[in-house]
Amino acid sequence: MERRSIVKKMLASIAGISVLGFAKASPIQTADEKEVNNVTEYEDVPLFSGSTRLGNMIFVAGKGAHVEPFEIKAHTEIVLKELETELKKAGSSMEKVLKVNVYLNDIADYQGMNEVYKGRFGKKPPVRTTVAVAKGGVPGNSLVEMDCIAYV
Amino acid sequence: MERRSIVKKMLASIAGISVLGFAKASPIQTADEKEVNNVTEYEDVPLFSGSTRLGNMIFVAGKGAHVEPFEIKAHTEIVLKELETELKKAGSSMEKVLKVNVYLNDIADYQGMNEVYKGRFGKKPPVRTTVAVAKGGVPGNSLVEMDCIAYV
Amino acid sequence: MERRSIVKKMLASIAGISVLGFAKASPIQTADEKEVNNVTEYEDVPLFSGSTRLGNMIFVAGKGAHVEPFEIKAHTEIVLKELETELKKAGSSMEKVLKVNVYLNDIADYQGMNEVYKGRFGKKPPVRTTVAVAKGGVPGNSLVEMDCIAYV
C-alpha cells in the first residue's frame, strides 16, 4: 500500500511536470505571460519597452544615437552598446542574438557601419537586414537605428 | 498483475504527454503546422495573410490606412484598430503584443503618431522600432504602416 | 524488488523526458543554442549569417539582387530564389514561412513585385510588410530586398 502510494505520488508529480511541458506545446492552455524591461513613457503613459520576453525569446526595441559626433562609426558604437545593455538586462547577450535590423540614415554609411559592426555578435552572428530609410528618417537624427531578436 | 497493468497504462499515458512536450523541444520531430487568417489574394492567387500562427506566436501583417482624412492621428487610429482586429481574430490582444514596427511616411509625424499610440498596448507595452521610409513609401498612400509580433 | 527497480528506471526515464520538456518551457534552464548557416565575413571577421535557428524557428537574412537586368520582376525572382535556398539549407521551405518583410527601392515597383511574389509561399502565405525605402537605400543597388521568419 505504501509503495502504491509512493508510486502514485511520483506519477502525479511527473504528470505535473509533463502537463507543464504539454501546456507549452499546446499554447491555448499556456500560462506564459510576457515580461518587459525599461518602459519609456510619453506624457505619463507607457509608450514602449526596452525589451520584452516571452518564454526564451527576447525582443529589443530600436536603438538610436542622439549625441555628437554625428558620424557613422561613433553612432554605430553607441547603438551596439545600447543593444548590449538591453540584452544583458534581459539575461541575454550579443552572442545570443538571432536577427538584427539595421536602418541607416544614408546608404553611404554602409561600409562605416560594417567596420564597427563586424565581429560584435561572436563567431555565429545573427542574420541581418540593412536598408537606408529617408534622410532624417531615424528618430532623433541618429545616423543609424538597430533592433534585434534574441534568446536566453 | 492488474496493478502492474494499470501502472503500465499510466506510464504509457504520461509518456505520451511527455513525448509531446519533448517533440516541442526537439523541433525536427514536431508536428506543429502554421495556421493563417484573412488571406489576401492577388489575381486569384494567395498573396499574404492577415496573421499567421505557430505554436503560441502570432505574426500580424503590415497595416495601413487608405482613407480620408490623410492626417497622422486619424491614420494611426485606423492602423491600431486594424492591428487589434487581426490580433483578436487570432485569439490574441493588444496587451499580448511583443514587438511593433512603425513605418512613417514623414518623420514630422512622429509626435502625432505617439499621441495616439501611447497606452494602446497596456501597462507592459511591446518594444517598438520607428523609422520614416521614402515619401509615399507606404503602399496605398498611408501616412503610417505598422506590423507586430504577439502571442496567445 | 526487480519490478520496483524497473518502475524506478521507467520513472527516471520519463522524468528525464519531462524535465527536457519543462526546461523548454522554463527558459532559464534551457540548454538550447542557436545554429547558424552560411556566415558572411567582412575583413575575415564574421559579419552576419544567411540563416539562424533556435528550436523550430528560422530567421533568414535580408536578400537582394545585384545583377542585370535592373528590373523589378527579375530582381524579385532572384530574391525569392535566394530566400528559398536559405530556407532549404535550414531544413525549412517557402510553405513554412511565417512573416516576410519587403523593402522596395521604389514604391512604383509594388505591382511588379506582387506579380512575381503571388503564390510563391503556397496556399497559406506568410504575413507581409512592404515599404519603399530611400532611392538606392537597398544595399548593392538591388531593386528589392526581402527577409523572412520561418519554422521547421
TrEMBL record, chains A, B, C:
Pfam families: Ribonuc_L-PSP. CDD domains: YjgF_YER057c_UK114_family. Keywords: Signal. GO terms for cellular component: cytosol. Residues 1-25 form the signal peptide. SUPFAM superfamilies: YjgF-like. It comes from the Bacteria. One of its GO terms (molecular function) is deaminase activity. InterPro entries: RutC-like_sf, YjgF/YER057c/UK114. Belongs to the RutC family. This is RidA family protein. The lineage of its organism: Bacteria, Pseudomonadati, Bacteroidota, Sphingobacteriia, Sphingobacteriales.
